[in-house]
Amino acid sequence: MATKRRKQSERNWQAYFYNIRNSNGEIIQPVKQISLGTSDEKEAELRLQELRRIEANILFGAEIMVPWKSGGELARLNQPTVAKVYEKFKEHKVLYGSRPETMKHYNLTYNAFIAANGPKILMNKVDSSSIDKMIGYLKSERDLKNVTINARLRHLKAFLRWSYETGKMMRIIRIKMLPTPKGETKYIKTSDYVKIIKYLSDNYPDIVPCIRLYWERGFRASEPFFGELEGNVLRLGADQEKTGRQRIIHLNDEHSAIVRYMQATFYSGDDGNKDLNRRHKDVIYRAFKKACKHISVEGNLHSLRHSFGLRTCFREGLHTASKLMGHSNVLVTAIYADWDEDSLLTDFPELITEGAGSLNELLAGKKSNQNKSIDYLRKTG
């Protein structure tokens, strides 16, 4: 319990609070001293009793405002706003190496929370109703599906957990994920891939090599752009990878040429930085979506990664597929192993007879429609 003392060299009484801790029980400040602002012992005792009323918060590291300093009627907590705490949280995440893409998602979550609860909401006012307001906003105003809202909730959960552990809020807010149906992994089957390549060859020939790379190597959308290419080796730094670990990818000559082509064609490079601009999404991603829509197939660039995972798992086994895809755990890759073999062979007939069939015939026959991109690849190769 807090005590009061007055040293001979001091005019006013002081309140002493001991062992200020964080949520993990770690002492972050052995002694916290708060002036009681009076030399009268009886008045000092009354003020000490007022501080003891919020002693639990003080021991948790909260800042307070006292009436003998602020002119208020009661000693009260000086809680920061969510906006102020979030700025500290961003500094912490960047300091510990969070990727720009990760921070973008944190910012989207923060913006949604503020849009739903107002810019001046205090940390000590955040409760389950604040979470409900954000969910309602994302559903009604942003028209997001539950799976996307859950991603926002996970980022909010991380922010609130950090706020609690660093003493910015006094209690944990439990966040419950929304129910989501377990859907099948969306992939592009070979016959649809052939149609997509045909459409792109006729309408966006400079995009075809990029789509081939995603199909043949299973890259995540941004990896060809972020990686540092040295010969036939693509190096992805720990801060650029989803797993948070450095990754080295060995490519053949053709794939290396495509990566060079993509980096040279779809980087801005105007500011001298290797930051990925949005053009690869505006051009490659949207062109692929148009192709999918044209042939009445639901899919995106990541669907090509799923196709690669299914084919590789079938041909090379689970562990090889996990390594090639850069997964942190083979259990992540296991979704590609639990698949009906007959359906798989129907959707990917080249798994039965590698090197034959419409896929290779198309890619060979379409060279005349891809002169621009192929010529470029030869020059950069």
Description:
The chain has 381 residues and is mainly alpha-helical. The protein folds into three domains: 3-77, no CATH class; 82-165, DNA polymerase, domain 1 (Orthogonal Bundle), CATH 1.10.150; 190-380, hpI Integrase, Chain A (Orthogonal Bundle). The protein has 18 helices and eight strands. The longest helix is centred in the middle third of the chain and has 20 residues, at 146-165. The termini are far apart.
Element layout with pairings:
Elements: E1 3-5, E2 14-21, E3 27-35, H1 41-52, H2 55-59, E4 64-65, H3 67-70, E5 76-77, H4 82-95, H5 100-117, H6 128-140, H7 146-165, H8 190-203, H9 208-217, H10 223-226, E6 228-230, E7 233-236, E8 247-250, H11 253-266, H12 279-294, H13 301-316, H14 318-325, H15 330-333, H16 341-347, H17 358-365, H18 371-380
Antiparallel strand pairs: 1-2, 2-3, 4-5, 6-7, 7-8
CATH architecture type of the largest domain: Orthogonal Bundle
How would you write the strand order of the largest sheet? 1-2-3
Shape assignment: elongated
What is the tally of helical segments?
Answer: 18
Query: What is the radius of gyration computed over CA atoms, rounded to a whole number of angstroms?
Result: 29 Å
Ranges with pLDDT <50 over ≥5 residues? 268-278, 355-381
Helix content: 40-55%
Question: Considering the protein shown, what is the CATH homologous superfamily of the largest domain?
Answer: Intergrase catalytic core
Mean pLDDT rating: 81
Q: What structural class do you assign from the helix and strand content?
A: mainly alpha
- How far do the termini sit from each other? 74 Å
Strand content: 5-15%
- Count of structural domains: 3
Following the backbone from N to C, one meets helices and strands in this order, namely EEEHHEHEHHHHHHHEEEHHHHHHHH
CATH class of the largest domain: Mainly Alpha
CATH topology of the largest domain: hpI Integrase, Chain A
How many strand elements? 8
Major sheet, described briefly? 3 strands, antiparallel
